[in-house]
Amino acid sequence: MISFIKKQLKKIENKSLRRVVLSILLAGSAVVLAVVTIYSTALVLGPPPMSKGGNTIYYSEEEKVIGEEHGPESRYWVSLDEMSPMLIKAALTTEDKRFYSHHGLDVKRILSAAWKDLQALSKVQGASTITQQLARNLYLSHEKTWTRKLKEAFYAIRLEMFYDKKEILEGYLNTIYYGHGTYGVEAASRYFFDKSAKQLDLAEAALLTGIPKGPSYYSPYRHLDNAKNRQEQILASLEQSGLISEDEQYLAARQTIQLTEHANEAENKTAPYFLDTVLAELQNILDMDAEAIRSGGYQVYTTLNLEQQQQMEETVTKSISNSSELQVGAVAQNPKNGAVKAMVGGRNYTVSQYNRVTQAKRMPGSSFKPFLYYAALENGYTPVTSLLSKPTSFELEDGTVYQPSNYNGYYANEPITLAQALALSDNIYAVKTNLFLGPKELVKTAKKFGIEEDFTAVPSLALGTGAVTVNEMAAAYGMLANGGKSVEPFTIKKVTDSHGKVLYERKKQDSSPVLDPVSTFILTDLMTGMFDESLNGYMRVTGASIADELTRSYAGKSGTTKTDNWMVGFSPDLVTSVWTGFDDNKPVENTNDLQAAKSIWAGFMEKAHANIPFHAFPVPDGVVGAYVDPVSGELATPYCDQHRLMYFAEGTEPTSYCSLHHDEAEENQEQPPEDGDEEQDSGWKRWFKWLSRS
């Protein structure tokens, strides 16, 4: 080929003409080589990414939108089918009439624009196609340099090579800037008209289409006249193109535009403390910072139950006086898997974003005792193991003396059973048990329940002197509710990108028990005792004040320190942990404030269970039940004033009948009636009456 060209050039005798022809051939060859190089490079590099993120949207477990976040920019990504057809027509007519006939670069338009610029000796007309604008929006800055223009052209070629026209148009309409921090037609539609892009009418579509030419100059909020003039130009162009009628143009141009009013106050979010927790969890899952996530266009499917969230918020509001500065942390979880169903991290999110469920560590008081008594059951205790409850001074190994006290200074001054000690929250019984087992055993047991705090192994730990979070307590109690399986609290079920591609999906966790099922069930049953007044002793059971509010069986434990009040409890379906107190750790003294944690817990649990079928705690193999006198700890008889069905590991149940109340009955028994008296109360009749009461 080269030799042929040389021969042809030699035939041209005029040297000047020969040079011109040679120059043309070289230039043409260079152009061809450049085009081949450009397209080859584009082919090798492959398709450039189309999406540039968007607003991250959060969904409840029912897949209803509960919130959305974005960084400095608000973005959504919607398909062409989710946009108003008039908006699409207006964009094509205004920005790129030859969009479907060019291949990224409109040569005819470029030459026309260049000629007009030359005539005016300045740049008066743009020539960028929709494809070029998309390339600039996605990959480049808006600086006016030849380097940027060349890069823009190259990206436009790549886009046209790998994406069809529909995809390119969709990408453009989802990335164009409309001012006020909004990118794309969906974000703009919501911002300006509080509706989706699909719902825009002709007048609104034309108004939006005009804004990108100068987002500040044509903003209807800042310069309504400019926006209206631009709108009328676009409507006229649509009419000239035959896309709308003259009547449609006339009516749309004179239609009153209803713009959305934007309040200055902070947006009222749904479950804001929960959403903050979701964002923190999402950062770990995606290994990204918060700002990148907010503007990443992710779809986040959470565990939140909207109805239960509303019930929790309403109960908190009802239970704490508006005049009180008392704070609250409350969380409800599914004990089967740890899914967080509702969360209130404080009384007013706009005032304080500090989450008292996940961030605050407070002393749990007696709500820590179940962990101690699980260890006790594992080390030979039964529900009727008795210890003396009276003021006691404990001399420790280092020679110091520890003197715990009971609430308000009340003591039985006689032996009480484990069942009663837990229901009455006897501190002497707890400390004796902790010293008997060794405080290190309680630290080890707490870790078994998933509480990883570095507790000091001291006698007072039995009374909840180590700090924990509300979330940790809920998860730990959840292990009792589910029969002993380990659970980890979580808020996210699935994450996808803006196009629905699954980036993360929570896997089903290992369901093997960590706790002994028999001890777990026995402890759970003992924890129902805080609401059972048959266990009343030297004082009423600690749940007596809310027992009348409860319509089904729950297990739980309250906790009280000078500065903290707790109520943690569960059914087989839901576990709820509530803390109340002051952020500055001042003592809680008001009577209503002291009762608030229990009131919140009881009110919420009843509302949350209203539509949940009743489920009993399943009884594992190796457990036997027996009616026991709660005072003596022996099998109950008809002479016992109170009795309770208690559960034992098989072979550890009591075998002797209560002699305490039988002896009292013998001493006070009246003279029996004469033989044959119809009122004689025979033994079998007494047993029948007792069983009837049972």
From TrEMBL:
Catalytic reaction annotation: [GlcNAc-(1->4)-Mur2Ac(oyl-L-Ala-gamma-D-Glu-L-Lys-D-Ala-D-Ala)](n)-di-trans,octa-cis-undecaprenyl diphosphate + beta-D-GlcNAc-(1->4)-Mur2Ac(oyl-L-Ala-gamma-D-Glu-L-Lys-D-Ala-D-Ala)-di-trans,octa-cis-undecaprenyl diphosphate = [GlcNAc-(1->4)-Mur2Ac(oyl-L-Ala-gamma-D-Glu-L-Lys-D-Ala-D-Ala)](n+1)-di-trans,octa-cis-undecaprenyl diphosphate + di-trans,octa-cis-undecaprenyl diphosphate + H(+); Preferential cleavage: (Ac)2-L-Lys-D-Ala-|-D-Ala. Also transpeptidation of peptidyl-alanyl moieties that are N-acyl substituents of D-alanine
Chain segments carrying region Disordered: 663-683
Coiled-coil residue windows: none
Pfam families: Transgly, Transpeptidase
SUPFAM superfamilies recorded: beta-lactamase/transpeptidase-like, Lysozyme-like
Principal subcellular localisation of the protein: membrane
GO molecular function: penicillin binding; peptidoglycan glycosyltransferase activity; serine-type D-Ala-D-Ala carboxypeptidase activity
Transmembrane segments: 20-45
CC per GO annotation: outer membrane-bounded periplasmic space; plasma membrane
UniProt keywords, alphabetically: Carboxypeptidase, Cell membrane, Cell shape, Cell wall biogenesis/degradation, Glycosyltransferase, Hydrolase, Membrane, Multifunctional enzyme, Peptidoglycan synthesis, Protease, Transferase, Transmembrane, Transmembrane helix
Gene Ontology process terms (BP): cell wall organization; peptidoglycan biosynthetic process; proteolysis; regulation of cell shape
Annotated localization: Cell membrane
Domain Penicillin-binding protein transpeptidase: 329-598
Ranges of biased composition (kind: Acidic residues): 665-681
Glycosyl transferase family domain sequence ranges: 64-238
NCBIfam families in UniProt: PBP_1a_fam
Family per similarity comment: In the C-terminal section; belongs to the transpeptidase family. In the N-terminal section; belongs to the glycosyltransferase 51 family.
Name assigned to this protein: Penicillin-binding protein, 1A family
Organism: Sediminibacillus halophilus
